[in-house]
Specification:
Elements lengths: L1 H16 L4 H15 L4 H6 L4 H24 L7 H21 L22 E3 L6 E3 L1 H7 L12 E3 L3 E3 L1 H14 L5 E3 L9 H15 L6 E3 L6 H7 L1 H5 L6 E3 L7 H10 L8 E3 L6 H13 L6 E3 L7 H10 L8 E3 L6 H11 L8 E3 L6 H15 L5 E3 L10 H10 L5 E3 L6 H13 L7 E3 L7 H11 L7 E3 L7 H13 L30 H9 L11
Parallel strand pairs: 1-3, 2-4, 3-5, 5-6, 6-7, 7-8, 8-9, 9-10, 10-11, 11-12, 12-13, 13-14, 14-15
Helix pairs in contact: 2-4, 4-5, 6-7, 7-8, 9-11, 11-12, 12-13, 13-14, 14-15, 15-16, 16-17, 17-18, 18-19
């Protein structure tokens, strides 16, 4: 009787645990969507995902993890289902963390949130990054890494981020990693020596480097370790042995000129590299030359990020010229550098060689009108399929508006447009808004905040997006829109297909403010605004044949 009862109970338990009901799966997607799109330590560091992008990622993560867990469930000898549930939960958590660390991007980029390869059935990912950041001692390291010591394990991906290893813990980890290094394909050791004295941190890096030497990795993340040149060279043995890398992340690592030089010298080949991220370093013009050398030797690069790296005009020119070799590039992020006009012009000469671009981030580069117009004229011809265009903070004024408008008219696949923190005023706003009215059915986000425009500009942008299906955010904050103008914007949105939900915050709008009109006399008062608005219907955007 006991034996029969024992045989029966697991089958009953299996039905309760797996597969999850459709409502449970949907609930998980909604919960992940909320987590991905809510302000957190990750969003402050890597950027906040929009609700739509978060939802698309959540659906993809859930489907990927459900499929993996379901395959695992079918192979369970007892049919229990509990390990499938554990795998389902663990993998969703892992992939959600990877999406958060990658930051906002288009759906195309997020096909596989952790990496481009899909999850395989069974335990292939060991992730100890969850929970609070903490120091790891030898005994805890032994316990945390014990799954890697089991005979016949199939772990291919490890993530030790957010845990700080000392020398004792590293000496425990070293032999374990060496025993599985031939099966590993993805290693994330970002932020794994936080708070350690420099000498100890360097020793830990050397231990890990020696242990992983000779592994054939496609993905390596050594970000957030304050490497500098000493840290890069501490990873010498690991880096020298990597000839098959497809993704390399060296963000927030104190990469100076010497560190960039060391990195370019140590990695023997970047021919297979598809993703290279250098965000938030101290590279400068001199270091940019070595980064450019790596880029030039990466013909298969698809995703390049070199934002916030203190690169000026000379480095920007060198980098822009090197990018000409990356003819498969889909995503380019150069934000928050000091490129200036000359580097912008150099970039414009390279863009015709990049016909596959889908996203380009060029905010805060000091391009000014001349550099911006050169870039836009190139993009108009070479990348009409562009989905994301960011040009915030480039000192663009109304004189550049016709070039912006012509470019936008050619880009009918655009999903996100950012022109914030420029000086468009009403005159430029009218021209650009008019170019967005017709077509652009896929447009979802428009950010024209802090552009010195008033009622006219606000009304024009509201009209431009009012009837676009799927539109989610209009940001006109930080301008000089009167209370009457705000009411008009709301009326336009309420009367059209989109509701007021698409209107972003207006907490920094100054209804009493006026633009500096040294060069512009179009927006002195409401009468002038109304006169300009009345001319809106006659504005045409010239297109090249």
């Amino acid at each position: 009787m006991d034996s029969a009862s024992q045989d029966f109970q697991p089958r009953t338990f299996s039905i309760k645990l797996w597969p999850p009901s459709e409502s449970t799966r949907l609930m998980l997607v909604e919960r992940m969507t909320k987590n991905l799109s809510t302000e957190s330590i990750f969003s402050r560091k890597y950027g906040l995902l929009g609700k739509e992008e978060a939802h698309e990622n959540a659906k993809r993560i859930e489907q990927l993890c459900f499929t993996s867990a379901d395959e695992h469930f079918k192979k369970e000898p007892d049919g229990d289902g509990s390990s499938a549930v554990q795998l389902y939960a663990k993998d969703t958590s892992k992939l959600m963390l990877e999406v958060l660390k990658r930051g906002p991007g288009t759906t195309a980029e997020s096909e596989a949130p952790m990496a481009v390869t899909p999850l395989e059935s069974g335990d292939t990912v060991l992730d100890i990054s969850g929970g609070k950041r903490a120091f790891i001692e030898a005994e805890e390291a032994k316990e945390l890494l014990s799954p890697l010591t089991k005979p016949g394990n199939s772990y291919k991906r490890i993530c030790f981020s957010n845990r700080s290893f000392g020398v004792d813990a590293a000496n425990v980890a070293g032999p374990i990693l060496e025993s599985v290094k031939n099966q590993l394909t993805e290693v994330d050791i970002s932020d794994f020596v936080a708070g350690r004295p420099e000498d100890e941190a360097l020793d830990v890096m050397r231990i890990f480097s020696k242990a992983l030497e000779g592994s054939v990795l496609r993905y390596l993340n050594i970000s957030d370790n304050a490497l500098g040149e000493k840290g890069v060279r501490a990873f010498s043995e690991l880096l020298k042995s990597q000839e098959n890398l497809e993704e390399l992340y060296v963000m927030n690592d104190g990469i100076s000129e010497d560190a960039a030089k060391a990195l370019s010298e140590l990695i023997p080949s970047t021919l297979k590299l598809k993703v290279l991220h250098f965000h938030n370093n101290m590279t400068g013009d001199e270091g940019a030359v070595y980064v450019a050398e790596m880029v030039k030797e990466s013909p298969n690069l698809e995703n390049f990020r070199c934002s916030a790296t203190r690169i000026g005009s000379d480095g920007g020119v060198a980098l822009s010229e090197a990018l000409g070799a990356c003819t498969h590039l889909k995503k380019l992020d150069l934000r928050d550098n000091l490129f200036g006009v000359d580097a912008g012009i150099a970039l414009s000469k390279t863009l015709p060689n990049l016909p596959d671009l889908v996203e380009i981030y060029l905010s805060d580069l000091n391009l000014e009108n001349k550099g911006t117009i050169a870039v836009l004229n190139a993009l108009k011809q070479s990348a009409p399929q562009l989905e994301v265009l960011e040009l915030a903070g480039n000192e663009i004024n109304a004189k550049a508006a016709p070039a912006v408008a012509e470019c936008l008219t050619a880009m009918q696949s655009l999903k996100k447009l950012t022109l914030a923190e420029n000086e468009l005023k009403d005159e430029g706003a009218v021209i650009i808004a008019k170019s967005l009215e017709d077509g652009h059915a896929d447009l979802k986000e428009l950010d024209v905040s802090t552009n010195m425009f008033q009622r006219v500009g606000a009304r024009c942008f509201a009209r431009a997006v009012a009837n676009k299906p799927g539109f989610v955010l209009l940001n006109i904050n930080g301008n000089f829109i009167s209370d009457e103008g705000i009411d008009e914007v709301k009326d336009i949105l309420k009367a059209a297909k989109n509701s007021l939900d698409v209107l972003g915050s207006l907490d920094e709008n100054d209804p009493e403010g006026e633009p500096d009109d040294e060069d512009d006399e179009d927006a002195e008062n409401d009468d002038d605004e109304d006169e300009l608005d009345s001319k809106l219907q006659n504005v045409q955007v010239e297109q090249d044949d």
